[in-house]
């Protein structure tokens, strides 16, 4: 019998009042992949992720994580997932180590191995040396890596990252991705990531799904998507072809990203 995929969404739908955020989403993510979910603002990515992570109930359609139905096996699914949301999840008044230890307790990491797992997660993101400093003194990139450690401390099989590099400078972005790559190589963990940065998707995601208005409009490896559109096409071109001119309105995204970064670090 073949093992189930890491994630399977079938005819998934979610509306906030009149706004249909996810509208018949069919998505399958094979185990061990780095899978990129791309789409313009409001495409429904975060809403889909919140259903996959059990934070939002599934009312229409279904979601399975490693074959477990999220509606019926909520706690079991939560134990399999590490999640780094868009919003800040680290506490600036605590040290890096205390932040990760807090997540270890929340996610029931056994007391016996807790200290070891906290250190191992901090080490995996390159923060062991800074672990006893208050997180308020960390740079934006270090905070993102700390949040990664928080998500990794329970040794999840599926790591979900919602815009992990938003607002970071290119060096910090590369550093976050290098850590993700390294951890994935060492653990075979499946990674689901959303990003608006096409260069990152191209470089780091083995497979990409482009989401627009609540459903998947194109899916494949970056190379496949580019080839399908025509010779010389870039991922930006594919994105534009799928979403119309949504990238033209990037001003709002830039402002939102900058605001979010200011909030995160402020
Ligand atoms: N809690 C909520 N209440 C009402 N509407 C919501 C809520 N969350 C999301 N929406 C709406 O649902 C739609 C999809 O939003 P969602 O955040 O899932 O998109 P996204 O693809 O993650 O966008 P972004 O790239 O900006 O994060 C949008 O129209 C959004 O305004």
Could you list the spans in which at least 5 consecutive residues all have pLDDT below 50? 248-259
Mean pLDDT reading: 88
User: What's the CATH class label?
Assistant: Alpha Beta
CATH superfamily, by name, is P-loop containing nucleotide triphosphate hydrolases
Q: What's the Cα radius of gyration?
A: 18 Å
Query: How many DSSP-defined strands?
Result: 10
Shape: globular
The CATH architecture classification is 3-Layer(aba) Sandwich
Q: What small molecules accompany the polymer chains?
A: adenosine-5'-triphosphate
Give the amount of beta strand, in percent.
15-25%
- What is the domain total for the residues? 1
How are the strands ordered across the major sheet? 6-7-8-3-9-10
Structural class: alpha/beta
Question: How helix-rich are the residues, as a percent range?
Answer: 40-55%
For the sheet with most strands, the description reads: 6 strands, mixed
Distance between the termini: 51 Å
Q: Compute the number of helices.
A: 10
CATH topology: Rossmann fold
The helix/strand order is EEEHEEHEHHHEHEHEEHHH
Question: Could you please describe the fold and organization of this structure?
Answer:
The chain has 266 residues and is an alpha/beta fold. It has one domain (32-43, 77-265): Rossmann fold (3-Layer(aba) Sandwich), CATH 3.40.50.300. The chain has helices spanning 45-52, 74-80, 96-106, 111-124, 140-152, 170-187, 198-204, 222-229, 235-243, 250-265; strands spanning 7-16, 19-29, 34-38, 60-65, 68-69, 81-84, 158-162, 190-194, 207-212, 215-220. A 6-stranded mixed sheet has the order 6-7-8-3-9-10, sandwiched between helices. Strand 4 and strand 5 (68-69) form a beta hairpin. The protein starts with 6 loop residues before the first strand and ends with a helix. It binds adenosine-5'-triphosphate. Residues 16, 19, 21, 39, 41-47 line the site of adenosine-5'-triphosphate. It is a peripheral membrane protein. Its main location: membrane. One of its GO terms (biological process) is response to antibiotic. GO terms for molecular function: ATP binding; ATP hydrolysis activity. It is found in: Cell membrane.
């Amino acid at each position: 019998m073949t093992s189930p995929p890491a994630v399977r969404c079938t005819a998934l739908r979610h509306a906030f009042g009149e706004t249909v955020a996810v509208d018949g989403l069919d998505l399958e993510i094979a185990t061990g992949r780095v899978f990129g979910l791309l789409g313009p603002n409001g495409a429904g990515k975060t809403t889909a992720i919140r259903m996959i992570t059990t934070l939002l109930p599934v009312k229409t359609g279904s979601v399975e994580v490693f074959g477990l139905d999220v509606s019926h096996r909520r706690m079991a699914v939560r134990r399999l997932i590490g999640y780094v949301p868009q919003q800040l999840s680290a506490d600036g008044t605590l040290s890096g180590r205390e932040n990760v230890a807090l997540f270890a307790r929340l996610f029931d990491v056994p007391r016996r191995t807790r200290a070891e797992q906290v250190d191992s997660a901090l080490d995996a993101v390159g923060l062991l040396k800074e672990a006893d400093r208050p997180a308020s003194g960390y740079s934006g990139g270090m905070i993102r890596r700390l949040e990664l450690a928080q998500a990794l401390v329970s040794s999840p099989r599926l790591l979900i990252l919602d815009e992990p590099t938003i607002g970071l400078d290119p060096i910090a972005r590369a550093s976050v991705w290098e850590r993700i790559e390294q951890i994935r190589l060492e653990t075979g963990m499946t990674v689901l990531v959303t990003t608006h940065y096409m260069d990152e998707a191209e470089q780091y995601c083995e497979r990409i799904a482009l989401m627009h208005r609540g459903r998947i409009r194109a899916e494949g490896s970056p190379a496949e998507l580019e080839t399908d559109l025509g010779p010389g096409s870039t991922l930006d071109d594919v994105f534009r072809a799928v979403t119309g001119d949504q990238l033209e309105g990037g001003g709002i995204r830039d402002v939102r990203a900058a605001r979010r970064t200011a909030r995160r670090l402020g």
